[in-house]
Fold each of these.
Amino acid sequence: MTTGSDGLVPRRTQVVIIGGGPAGLLLARKLQLAGKESIILERQTREYVLARIRAGVLEWGSVEQLREAGVGGRMDLEGFPHEGVGLSFSGRHLRIDFQENVGRNVMIYGQTEVTKDLYAALDEAGVPIVHEATDVMLHDLTTGSPSVTFSVDGVEHRIECEYVAGCDGSHGVSRSAMPASILREYERVYPFGWLGILSETPPVDDELIYAHHERGFALCSMRHSMLSRYYVQCPLDDDVSDWSDDRFWDELSSRLPPDAASRLVTGPSIEKSIAPLRSFVAEPLQHGRLFLAGDSGHIVPPTGAKGLNLAFSDVHYLFEGLVDALAGGSTTGLDTYSDRALRRVWQAVRFSWWMTTLMHRFPDTGDFDRRIQEAELDHLSMSDAAQSVFAENYTGLPY
Ligand code: FAD
Ligand code: PHB
């Protein structure tokens, strides 16, 4: 357990943040810089959180938020700004240039590194982070004095606060603290998963390649010059043990255009996992003094690289509302948080759904559907307007 500088769990704070993933950590950092108090309660150990291989693409708004929060130094040194992305289909490679279309980039910098940088800044500033917090429960959310109880090493604690931020991801407790009568949930489950591997090999290309292929979707991504991240679409009921490294490399290479496949450097995987794909939105993101941010309120399939970035845009809106309210000023920012955040969330949900539908082979994809996908990709290749729309969404809509 990590706590405040005196080693004790405080009994009172301004904001209890449930979840020490990117959303919770960035919110705590922004509050700390604004002179506001918070405590993070995280169910896992720090080692566990840092071992999770997740996102790799930061929108420009996320990059700027990290810089403003004083945690962009290593990202600017070690991250890779990408000025475009490749889409491959029908044996062709289409490059969409972000700079030319919208004058913005994305940054390749792993979620693990973002998380590490945020933990380091919070530790230095003495913000209390309680790890291995179990049985987290939220109380009195519709009163002026909510509280959160939890246990660490079998000892129960209670923290009184002014607000609770539910940043505990899709399997957290915060969303379930909202009454079913006010909650509306929207969901689409996709009939396939992504099998991902990490390998200490040079990336096949300088930029990401999203591949549409009759055998299924594939994605070539990276973390740095000697660390590649690759994915192939796979059936939902496949198990990681069904996929030897050799089988993975053969499948990936068969889904890439021949020139990319010929450049592919293979090697042993150092991580291999299967993720299901889902779109999900909970509305509203507020109940009394509880506010949901990030994956606790919404999930997107990874195709548009939007999950982490949405967690950060939520934090931007929530932070604005919290600082005003905590300063004793207006609560308008908090009152409008859910609507403002959800407006941007639905744009990213739409883009992620569109890209998933365009790039994957669905079990019931017939010849007609395949030709429609190809026609849409062909339209992207011939239309500057379509490429601008893609670039605008991929690099991130403004906050
Ligand atoms: P999380 O990262 O899930 O953090 C929530 C935290 O809360 C966790 O640390 C969890 O341990 C903790 N917690 C849970 N329950 C409790 C509890 N009861 N009490 C206390 N703590 C609790 N996004 C992108 O933007 N770009 C990408 O390229 C991208 N690629 C992805 C690839 C894959 C394979 C996957 C799986 C995801 C990808 N994402 C991507 C999505 C991105 O990783 C998530 O959207 C992001 O982690 C959300 O951050 P969060 O802080 O909201 O939630
Ligand atoms: C990744 O690098 O893990 C990654 C990149 C782009 C995506 C999804 C995942 O769309």
Note: The chain has a mean pLDDT of 96.
Amino acid sequence: MTAIGTLRNTSKDTLHEVLTRLQTEGAALGHFNVADHVLLKAVIAAASETKFPVFVGASEGEREFFGARQLAALVKSLRQESDVPIFLNADHTHSLAKAIEAAKAGFDSVGIDFSAVPFDQNVTRTKEAVQVVKAINPAILVEGEIGDIGTGSEIHESAQADFSKLTTPQEGRQFVEATGIDILAPSVGNRHGMLKSMVEGKAKKHLDIERIGQIKQATGVFLTLHGGSGTDDEHFRKAINSGINVIHINTELRVAWRESLTDSLARDSNEVVPYKILRPVVESVKQVVSARLRLFHGESVRPSAVGTVA
Ligand code: G3H
Ligand code: ZN
């Protein structure tokens, strides 16, 4: 397992190098979405606290709110002061134009997501995106997605994904070979968002661990697990051991952000100083991120730190 300090002073390492090293160590890179500076501060604080590398992610909507170039500039600045690696991903990119924008802004990776269109079109459009992004910067890693994992890092009333469309190892291999992607995001029982019962800690997501192992063997590329919020801890560990290299968590952070902001505002209705209101929000989200990072790196986590996400 990764010892604390192993990854210190390696912030010059590339994303590919860090993913390769973590794979050898039986760990996964935690990917956490940010939509504002509070969330970004929390993710960086968790990396600094745990000494584990982090992957900061922003979907098209999050990039639009934050500003893709502004987020990239902030991450670049934070990286210069960090003793742990920090990477930036253009998560769930649905158009070539947005992929180009992210590549030119300095993102370390682009997650191409044409999973909603038929397989053949997904192959054609993802392949084109890989070529265009790599022409801008060959060092950028490109992720492709297949299968249905539902949409929306939100609290859902009912399950969003169609589990009849789980990725097969054959599809995975065909997709990787035809597109030239560096990272594959398959559908393996994962799904975006959380049910209310998951937010309350009464239910957990479960993964098809055997399928993950088969897809890894068939493709040989890095694998990303989307929709990580609310997943059973043991399934996370087994998924990493079976070949998952990156784990995306968003809804858990959003729930912590909202709950702690609500509490903070309610504490004193006369408080108007933003940094006094927002400081506990950063702390609360940081605790969620740190607990997930420790789990992804094989450290035992206090039972109170996960299970409920507030
Ligand atoms: O790309 C983002 C993730 O897949 C997050 O999913 O909201 O279920 O954690 P989640
Ligand atoms: Zn996702």
Note: Strands lie at 29-33, 54-58, 86-93, 109-112, 141-145, 155-156, 183-185, 194-195, 222-225, 244-249.
